Structures are given as C-alpha cells and as structure tokens.
C-alpha cells in the first residue's frame, strides 16, 4: 500500500518496533488495546473486531513471556531487578567505552581489550532483549570474564570490577532468584514463544488495523479517521517517552563519568 497515494487527510503512522524494548512495546500495545475496547467503530466493524482480537491475543502472549501477568505476586520485584541489572550493564559499557580515550597507555589498552571483547562476542544492547534472553547473555558474559585472568585484571586496573562488574553479577543473581521463586513464571517461560515473536505478531496486526482505517478514511468516514489519529497520538507519545528515557540515560552515564573523573 503506497501511503503517498492516499487522498485522506491522514499522515503515515511510523512505528519501528525494533527501536523499543519488549517491555516498552508491551506498554504501548496495552494503550492501543484500551483504545480498541472503547472504540464504537471496532464494535461495529466485523473485520476490525477480528483483527483487534488477534492483536489482543498476541499482547497477552507477550505479557506472559515478560512475566507481566496482572496481579501476579513478585512481578514488580522482578521488573525492578531487571531495571537494576540493565542500568548496571549500560553503565559498565559506558565506562569501558569512555576509558578507551585514557592517556595512560596501560589503562587505555585494558579498556580497548574489554571494548573489543564486548563488541565481538556480546550485544551491547542485550538489555533490550526479553528477560530470559537477557539473563542467558549476561551469564555468558560473566563466564567469559571469570574465565579470563586478563579480562579480570583489565576490569580491576580500570576500577570497574568493584563499581560495576560485581554489582552487575549480584543484580543478576537477585533477578534469577526472584524468577525461580515463581513456579508459574518458570512454566510460562518453558511453554510460551519468545517475546520477540509475540511482539512481531502484534505489530503485524497493528499494521492491518492501520491499513483498514486508512482505506475507510479515503471514503471520508470520520470514525475511522478518528481511530487512526488516536493510534498516531499513542504512538507519538511512546516515541517521545523513549527519546526522553534515552536522553536521561545518557545524562546519567555522563554524570557517572564526570564523578569518576573528578
């Protein structure tokens, strides 16, 4: 469908799900789901009702994969532990990247070795993976570092072992213990598809919903135009929030670097 050929007063809705974490996608999909449930035109249009139903099913699957089951005991604690390890991972990466510019040749070489190790063998954005994939990647990282005297020495030389690496390992252990304490969560992770697949399924259904709105909007049907604009408002909001989060994380990393350098 060529959006440039449309004659309706609608702007194309741009939403690249790859730019967001599974947690962020779950939240924006929840807002969209509320929109369908309150929209009179969805209740009246059989095709929209069917597609939004499939979207809701994908959203439910995504929520179970992420451990976001409503009113589930321990969910908030798991989310907090996940956020803690994400912040520590980003901080460790930021510190290593910054220290490749050190004037001291020995410390600079140590930073370069660690930077190369992470670049070649691990995903710098592993904090964007779903919870279980994130855990697996982190534990592979720990095994690699702990199995290398050179890497351990590099972390110590740069002052990153105590400030970042050890706390990151502790945060991962807390996360694992919280997950293990919930048998329901363990069952979900064994039997449900990965969150990435569920996110893709929901995204495809969202595209169909948008296409249906645009097709009817060409005929000047106001209810579809309004639904389309409401979708755009929600997606614009999550884009703005994601940018704000990115800016805040960048400032936090800069503040940490400044404090360590002083």
Folded structure, characterized:
The chain is elongated, with a radius of gyration of 22 Å. The chain is mainly α and 262 residues long. The model is unreliable at 1-8 (pLDDT under 50). The chain contains 11 helices and no strands. The protein has helices at residues 22-38, 40-44, 46-65, 75-99, 105-121, 131-146, 149-157, 161-180, 183-191, 195-217, 222-261.
Low confidence ranges:
1-8
Name the beta content range.
Answer: under 5%
Order of helices and strands: HHHHHHHHHHH
Give the overall silhouette.
elongated
Largest sheet: none
How far apart are the termini?
56 Å
The helix/strand class is: mainly alpha
What's the tally of helices? Answer: 11
Estimated helix fraction: over 70%
- Kindly provide the radius of gyration, computed on alpha-carbon positions and rounded to a whole number of angstroms: 22 Å
Number of strands: 0
Write down the overall mean pLDDT: 81
């Amino acid at each position: 469908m060529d959006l440039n050929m449309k004659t309706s007063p609608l702007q194309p809705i741009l939403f690249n799900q790859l730019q967001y974490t599974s947690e962020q996608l779950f939240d924006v999909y929840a807002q969209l789901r509320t929109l369908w449930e309150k929209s009179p035109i969805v209740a009246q249009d059989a095709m929209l009702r069917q597609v939004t139903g499939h979207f809701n099913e994908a959203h439910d699957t995504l929520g179970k994969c992420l451990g976001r089951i409503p009113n589930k005991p321990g969910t908030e604690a798991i989310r907090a532990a996940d956020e803690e390890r994400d912040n520590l991972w980003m901080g460790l990466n930021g510190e290593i990247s910054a220290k490749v510019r050190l004037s001291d040749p020995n410390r600079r070489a140590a930073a370069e070795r660690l930077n190369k190790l992470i670049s070649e063998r691990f995903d710098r954005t592993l904090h964007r993976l779903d919870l279980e994939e994130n855990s697996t990647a982190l534990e592979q990282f720990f095994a690699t570092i702990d199995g290398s005297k050179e890497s351990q020495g590099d972390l110590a030389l740069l002052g990153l072992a105590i400030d970042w690496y050890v706390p990151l390992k502790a945060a991962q252990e807390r996360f694992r213990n919280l997950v293990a304490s919930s048998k329901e969560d363990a069952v979900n992770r064994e039997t449900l598809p990965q969150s990435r697949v569920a996110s893709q399924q929901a995204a495809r259904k969202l595209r169909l919903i948008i296409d249906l709105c645009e097709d009817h909007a060409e005929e000047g049907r106001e209810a579809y135009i309004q639904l389309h604009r409401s979708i755009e408002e929600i997606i614009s909001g999550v884009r703005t929030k994601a940018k704000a989060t990115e800016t805040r994380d960048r400032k936090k990393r800069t503040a940490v670097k400044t404090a360590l350098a002083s």
